[in-house]
Amino acid sequence: MCRVPRPRFLPLALTATVAALSLALCSCSSTSGSADRGPAGAAAAAGGDAPRMTQQEMNAQPRSALRQGGTLTWAIDQYSSQWNPVQADGSEVSTNDVIKAFLPTFWRSDAGGVQTPNPAYLTDVKSELRQGRQVVVWTLNPKAHWSDGTPITWRDLQANWQALGNLNTDFKTATTNGFDQVESVVRGQDDFQAVMTFKEPYSEWQAMFNNAGNAPLLPGQYISSPELFNTSFKNRIPVTAGPFKVGSLDPKARTVTAVADPGWWGDKPLLDKIVFKAYDTGAMPQAFAKGEIDFYNNGPNTEGYQLIRSTAGGEVRKAGGPNLRHLVLNGQSPLLTEAKLRQALIQAIDRAEITRTDLAGLDWPYVPMNNHFLVPSQHGYQDNSNGLSRFDPAAAKTALDALGWKPGPNGVRAKDGKELVLRYVAPAANNLAANESEEVTRMLAAVGVTVQVQTVPAGEFFDGYIYKHDFDLTSFSLLGTPFPVSNSISTFQQNSGSNWAQVGSKALDRAMADAAKAESVDEETAALNRADTEAWQVAGLVPLYQRPAIYGVRKELANLGATGLGDVVYENIGLTK
């Protein structure tokens, strides 16, 4: 990917050209049975270069080529109980897919991740230097308003900063998105201008109030206190300010119905209605084939991939991007508190074999990922693991012996009377997780570690287990954004609500902070690689591979599919004439 140096303060149309791992979680299914286990040579046959970061398949069409009206049924993998996407319990892909139809985004992102202001909400925006401080002036569209009639003003931006700026830890945030670098947000020339001053430079300020960064603007009146922030979007969406408004929330049917909002001041939505319906990921391909749904995230599901291709009126849309499939080791589980133990377990796991079996049968390269922040196609990608990325069961056994975990009479390692028995939590009807849990169980058994797989209802996987840190081992996907640092920080920062592994270090925090204020892309990349070195050492999140962005879509649908580094403009989704 071509990269250019970047000034400290980004001008309007200049993007951060590295892409980051996002806080948005996705369980995502795969193929099942023997199809996962092709001959060993299959990996080489299907290998090749990693996909380009700027790849995108959306069936992009001008609005004039599309007809007015219609309903889209969009499958999501969980019906959320928390609809605040930046609250610690709401940071999953399904929540973001839904909420982006309803809440403001100040930016539009193209296939290359270039950011341009969204005129529906901004009439002007600029970043400048004032007395040595970075200042961003946001000038709002005075037509923009919440669905209860309240205008969107500088106070909404101030409230978002106060909630997300780490000023009060009672706000249970999934990410700060740079708000922790902000010193103040004050009124500008009128109520429709906000002046934001930063304590330290923040190169990715365009990630703020941005759907592409999974961080839309939230209504100030519903997030002004920790209680409101944490509960106002619990089982409800109190107000909207987007092209669609809430038609209904139905937890029994597991559906959210979005209807075109006649009060919307921007381009009229082409669709009348979007029905978001929750399915177990393993059931989505058949639902698509039966015509029950029009669009779904297939991911690395081989059977689903083939089914889409054979479904009349359906097509595959796929792209590269900064998406990651990974394992998580819970560093606060009683048996996993030692970093050296977690490192030994990583060395006992053949990530290349998991990659091959997960992706067998897909037109996708089997390239294991050896960096937590950069995918193999990116400038600056390198392995900073100091050997930990290498499958080495002999080294793992030696390390476990040195740590005092000795094989018992039954072959299971034990220390101080406790056997090394770990619980792997996997969502039901998800063959990707089933394959990974099976492989990890087999691989760790070879070094004397027992893994017990607990299969849980897919709809409870995140809310009931991941957000509660109720697991020893697990696996899921993180989907990416155009911003290299903003969303990654929360995944690795100590004491963050989105640090699912619950491990970290001061050195890792410092490296991420250095990346956030980098003056050039190369300086940012160097800081990310320093952070990656530390991430391998704390050994909590273990990258597997760049996750394929593969979607099943009705051919007649336009402006929807695999976005790459772009975003979905919901009012432009439509049906071809």
UniProtKB/TrEMBL annotation:
Signal peptide positions on this chain: 1-34
InterPro entries (UniProt xref): Peptide/Ni-bd, SBP_5, SBP_5_dom
Entry's Gene Ontology cellular component terms: ATP-binding cassette (ABC) transporter complex; periplasmic space
GO MF term set: peptide transmembrane transporter activity
UniProt entry tagged with the keyword NAD: no
Keyword Signal: yes
Alphabetized Pfam families for the sequence: SBP_bac_5
Region (Disordered): 32-51
SUPFAM superfamilies: Periplasmic binding protein-like II
Domain Solute-binding protein family: 128-499
UniProt KW keywords: Signal
GO biological process, one term: peptide transport
Protein name per the record: Putative ABC transporter substrate-binding protein
